[in-house]
Design brief:
Length: 105
């Protein structure tokens, strides 16, 4: 179930990547993790709202601003740079309960 949830988010990210204009220009979509996070905070007021692992080798992070509603998704490969892969507006935080996963079945 965790895998299905993550795959859903990755699919949403891919769709958004295909349909949204990124905050950054193509020349600076990737860089040092700290620099990307600092830029999202300084320019857009975004802070990290969620994380997930992809295949155990990449970290996906969701950043968003409560004030402006802007959001960004980054992916960081193991040992590699952090890349901005999608961005948009009208972020809404949800507090839905996650399903209980019984690992024993």
């Amino acid at each position: 179930m965790k895998r299905d949830f993550f795959i859903l988010w990755m699919g949403i990210g891919a769709v958004l990547l295909a349909t949204q204009t990124l905050h950054a220009t193509p020349a600076n979509n990737c860089g040092d993790h700290g620099a990307i996070v600092d830029r999202l905070a300084a320019q857009y007021g975004e802070r990290r709202r969620g994380v997930g692992l992809s295949g155990g080798t990449s970290l996906l992070e969701i950043f968003a601003s409560d004030e402006t509603g802007s959001w960004s998704i980054t992916v960081t490969a193991a040992g590699g740079p952090t890349c901005l892969v999608a961005a948009g507006d009208y972020f809404q935080a949800l507090d839905d309960a996650l399903p209980i996963i019984d690992e024993g079945t």
